[in-house]
Design brief:
Keywords: Hydrolase. Among the domains are: 214 residues, Hypothetical protein af1432 (Orthogonal Bundle); 146 residues, no CATH class. It has 599 residues and is of the alpha+beta class. The strands form four sheets. It has a six-stranded mixed beta sheet with strand order 8-7-4-3-9-10. A three-stranded antiparallel beta sheet has the order 5-11-6, with helices on both faces. Strands 1-2 form a two-stranded antiparallel ribbon. The longest helix has 21 residues. Helix 3 runs antiparallel to helix 4, helix 3 packs across helix 12 and helix 7 runs antiparallel to helix 9. It has 23 helices and 13 strands.
Length: 599
């Protein structure tokens, strides 16, 4: 029987019988106890929504998108839509406590040489764990409700593997899905960056922290159409992709900008990252004290059911009740958590990743782990800035395609009688990777420099595309893109102006956290000395590359006191450095103040 769920974002969501069978299992119900935004709720009190409602939202959007793209309600189409919607519903089953924070924790554990090979094999990505949990969920439904399973699900082995492939973002073995590859990318599209998972979390997370949404997902849904792209080399298989109306370019650009903004103000907010780092160290203490048996929980899908956000309360309870000396460090961390005494941010700076390399921290080709290693090398030998005292965090924020313009991987069409699709060169390279026709190596760079964020086009050198495009319903009337007047096809839309900054599409954020408690006797002095030392190290490092720090952009976030900087000239050209002012030697305030101006 079809039922409905009232969702705060999408309104009434239709739940088909097959979806109800999946939802009413302990493997899906576990998602109720996984916060979508992890530890962000300690910074944003209203950010308490769960993976449960997010998964239902992704299922709903996927159902709408698949209906829009398939149009014809044939039995084959209906079955394929069911498989895609199941993948949408189950794509987050493998998330651990506090969502992505747990993934980062496992990645850091895997890097440690002390961990056994058996344990490292258990440290899978959340997508791989989702596949494990999904297969166990299907077994559970078959055992508990065999008749309803036969009636509403009845998945064969190939269909189960195809659902797992869609969760992993891989090619499914089912031939009908291979022929309609655009369906496989509805839940997770690493090429275009527009998928139902992203649409739902942008909508839901923005609402949770009280920020308005700058794009209309309904408009994108209505304009989505499938086009068949055929390479000029007819030996290559044609590719079917989802394209969006040229009139929705503003919505698309705002979608990517919204993603960037949420990473900036929410997902990678400094105090959120500081809490995640503290939580990771708390989990380490729990494992060392024998309170958390992570290896057992990861080795069995049924034991994994216990691994949700409630594990933190279990750790706190055991630490409070235990009298063992080995648990003292864990007890102290739990007390700090209760009083919001987590790590202090003593340094925070972002480096835009330019197209041309200026220094290693701004190199878009280097990963965050490499940059973190570089910072530790700079701090090597310092008696204060040691791993026992400070924690270095480095991460990249971008628009979804690293340092590249995300619009370079998205195809749009013109609303005309003749099918006319505009495909950036970068997207064609992804679709036909081994194309024999040469591409301009600078196309990607020039696309970033283009003020309207389109693939580069100039009257002197018309844009060349190595493909012809056809509508799904008008395949016999293929129209070559370069046969149309370029002025008609590539006229810049006024809505595209200044929607995404062409200067850079990725930035690296460097953050240094002080581990000690705010209530430790030497906290203030250690904080000041470490901050000064890190500032000096960074100034010296950048000066070696003839780059100077803009200290007005440095954010040292300490809400307990107002930060005052003493500016002193450093060079003859007026470059200055900022040093936190030490107030420890100031006289006690008597309450009597001299007037600022004497008349």
């Amino acid at each position: 029987m079809t039922t409905y769920i009232c969702d705060s974002v999408h309104g009434n969501v239709k739940i088909e019988p097959y979806a109800r069978l999946i939802i009413e299992t302990p493997y899906f119900a576990r998602l109720r106890h996984l916060k979508q935004l992890g530890g962000a709720c300690y910074t944003f009190p209203t950010a308490t929504h769960s993976r449960y409602e997010h998964s239902i939202g992704v299922y709903h959007l996927t159902n709408l998108f698949a209906t829009q793209l398939l149009q014809k309600e044939t039995p084959t189409h209906q079955r394929l839509k069911t498989l895609v919607c199941i993948a949408a519903l189950c794509h987050d089953l493998g998330h651990g406590p506090f969502s992505h924070s747990f993934d980062t924790f496992l990645q850091n554990l895997m890097k440690e040489e002390t961990q056994s090979k058996d344990f490292k094999r258990l440290c899978l990505s959340h997508e791989e764990r989702s596949c494990q949990q999904f297969k166990r969920l299907i077994e559970y439904v078959m055992e508990r409700n065999p008749k309803e399973y036969e009636l509403h699900l009845n998945l064969n082995e190939e269909e189960i593997e195809s659902i797992c492939a869609m969760i992993l973002g891989k090619k499914p073995p089912l031939h009908d899905l291979q022929r309609r590859e655009y369906l496989c990318h509805l839940v997770s599209d690493s090429v275009s960056g527009v998928d139902t998972d992203r649409l739902d979390y942008l909508l839901r997370d923005s609402r949770a922290i009280g920020r308005g949404l700058l794009f209309d997902p309904g408009s994108l849904l209505k304009s989505a159409q499938v086009y068949r792209i055929q390479a000029r080399d007819m030996k290559k298989d044609a590719r079917c992709i989802v394209c969006y109306s040229r009139r929705d370019e503003y919505e698309l650009s705002q979608l990517f900008h919204t993603r960037y903004s949420l990473f900036k103000v929410l997902y990678c907010r400094p105090d959120v990252c500081a809490f995640d780092a503290f939580l990771e160290d708390l989990f380490r203490e729990a494992i060392a004290a024998g309170v958390l048996d992570l290896e057992r929980a990861l080795s069995n899908p049924d034991d994994f059911l216990e691994l949700d956000d409630r594990i933190l309360y279990m750790i706190e309870k055991q630490a409070r009740e235990s009298q063992a000396p080995s648990i003292k460090g864990l007890k102290d961390m739990c007390k700090r958590l209760e009083t919001d005494d987590t790590y202090t941010i003593i340094y925070n700076y972002s480096f835009p990743n330019r197209t041309r390399l200026t220094h290693p921290l701004a190199d878009s080709d280097k990963g965050s782990s490499e940059k973190e290693k570089l910072l530790w090398e700079l701090l090597e030998g310092d008696p204060l800035c040691t791993p026992q005292n400070v924690r270095v965090v480095v991460y990249d924020i971008n628009y979804g395609h690293n340092h590249n313009n995300p619009r370079a991987y998205l195809a749009t069409y013109l609303d005309t009688d003749i099918p006319d699709v505009i495909i950036p060169d970068a997207l064609l390279k992804r679709l036909f990777k081994d194309s024999s026709d040469p591409f301009d190596e600078n196309d990607e760079e020039r696309a970033q420099d283009h003020p309207f964020n389109d693939s580069y086009h100039s009257p002197e050198k018309p844009m060349q595309l190595d493909a012809v495009v056809a509508s799904q319903d008008l395949i016999e009337n293929m129209v070559s893109l370069d046969s149309q007047p370029t002025s008609d096809r590539f006229g810049p839309s006024p809505f595209m102006q200044h929607t995404i900054s062409p200067e850079h599409f990725q930035e690296t954020v460097v953050m240094v956290l002080l581990r000690c408690s705010r209530y430790d006797p030497g906290y203030q002095r250690l904080k000041m000395e470490c901050t000064l030392r890190i500032s000096q190290v960074m100034d010296s490092y950048l000066a070696g590359y003839n780059v100077y720090m803009d200290h007005s952009r440095v954010n040292i976030n300490d809400t307990s006191s107002v930060l005052v900087h003493r500016i002193s000239p450093r060079t003859s050209n007026g470059i200055a450095s900022a040093i936190p002012l030490d107030h420890s030697d100031e006289e006690e305030d008597t309450g009597i103040h001299e007037p600022f101006l004497k008349c």
